[in-house]
């Protein structure tokens, strides 16, 4: 089994870097959730974050509903133009947390181990 370096995880999924020959491959992030895996560049991960936010705004119809986020499924666009995901609002919010948490940790690590180092 190949080694990984975890970036972020929640109850819905995980984001990590692959390791090869004891070196962490930092140019792409493996994102795994709901039996689905994406291997995104940081730019694509940022694009996915924007698409998630667009989807949240477009599908924000659950506030007054008594089923509250559990029934309605809709398509979530991804940076892969030929792939959309069928998700409900609860799943969308979990994916949002996973992606935003991963981006935050990546940016924090870049700062701490880059310009923030003394």
Helix-strand layout with pairing:
Layout: E1 4-9, E2 13-20, E3 23-24, E4 29-33, E5 36-40, H1 42-58, E6 73-77, E7 84-88, H2 89-113
Antiparallel strand pairs: 1-2, 2-3, 2-4, 4-5, 6-7
Tell me what you see in this structure.
The chain is built from 2 helices and 7 strands, in the order βββββαββα. The protein has one domain. The strands form 2 sheets. Strands 1, 2, 3, 4 and 5 form a 5-stranded antiparallel sheet that branches. Strands 6-7 form a two-stranded antiparallel sheet. The chain has helices at residues 42-58, 89-113; strands at 4-9, 13-20, 23-24, 29-33, 36-40, 73-77, 84-88. It is of the alpha+beta class and 118 residues long. The protein is 36% helix and 31% strand.
Task: List key phrases describing it.
36% helix; single chain
Radius of gyration: 16 Å
Structural class: alpha+beta
> Helix and strand string, N-terminal first?
EEEEEHEEH
Gross geometry: elongated
Number of strands: 7
Task: Report the sheet-strand fraction.
Answer: 25-35%
What's the story with the biggest beta sheet? 5 strands, antiparallel
Number of domains: 1
- The count of helical stretches stands at 2
Mean pLDDT: 89
Low-confidence stretches: none
Gap between N and C termini, in Å?
37 Å
Q: Percent of residues in helical segments? A: 25-40%
């Amino acid at each position: 089994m190949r080694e990984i370096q975890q970036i972020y995880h929640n109850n819905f999924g995980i984001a990590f870097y692959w390791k090869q020959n004891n070196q962490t491959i930092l140019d792409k992030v493996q994102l795994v959730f709901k039996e689905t895996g994406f291997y995104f560049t940081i730019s694509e991960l940022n694009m996915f974050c924007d698409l998630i936010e667009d989807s949240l705004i477009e599908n924000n119809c659950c506030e007054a509903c008594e089923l509250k986020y559990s029934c309605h499924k809709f398509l979530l666009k991804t940076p892969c133009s030929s792939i959309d995901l069928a998700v409900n609002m609860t799943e969308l919010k979990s994916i949002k947390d996973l992606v935003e948490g991963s981006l935050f940790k990546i940016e924090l690590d870049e700062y701490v181990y880059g310009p923030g180092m003394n």
